[in-house]
Design goal:
single chain; alpha+beta; 5-stranded antiparallel sheet; 3 helices; 5 strands; HIT family protein
């Protein structure tokens, strides 16, 4: 089995946050939206159905539990979870906390305006908030 390697575009567009049981957790470099990216650490996988059943369950668990926690902590109005892969084939899931007053509401965030990269302080603050929310979650599959 080959080692996991992050797609270059995902690496360029996101910041690392932490490693979850299945996924590498990354923060999209667009401060307009609380936008996380989960990348399963599995080589050569581009579709959810290519994961075994346990990994499919774990991906959904990580996305929904993290999303639920952040929706409350960041006082969001809606949680968007999506896996598109049109630009980057490597399987990854977007977990985005949406607010009615955000720059793209109610439209999707993709292709809306120009990304606003995090400044160092904003990045550190968002990473700390995400990590604090992860402390209270049980993301192990239990299997």
């Amino acid at each position: 089995m080959q080692d996991f390697e992050l797609d270059a575009r995902l690496a360029a567009d996101t910041h690392p946050v932490t490693e979850l049981p299945l996924c590498q957790l990354r923060l999209m470099d667009d401060a307009r939206f609380p936008w996380l990216v989960l990348v399963p650490r599995r080589h050569g996988v581009s579709e959810v159905f290519e994961l075994d059943n346990q990994d499919q369950h774990q991906l959904w668990r990580e996305a929904t539990e993290l999303g639920r926690a952040l929706l409350g902590a960041l006082e969001g109005d809606k949680l968007n979870i999506a896996s598109l892969g049109n630009m980057v084939a490597q399987l990854h899931a977007h977990v985005i906390v949406r607010r009615r007053e955000d720059a793209a509401w109610p439209a999707p965030v993709w292709g809306h305006g120009q990304a606003e990269p995090y400044d160092p302080d904003g990045l550190a603050d968002m990473r700390a908030r995400i990590l604090a929310e992860l402390e209270g979650l049980d993301l192990d599959s239990g299997e």
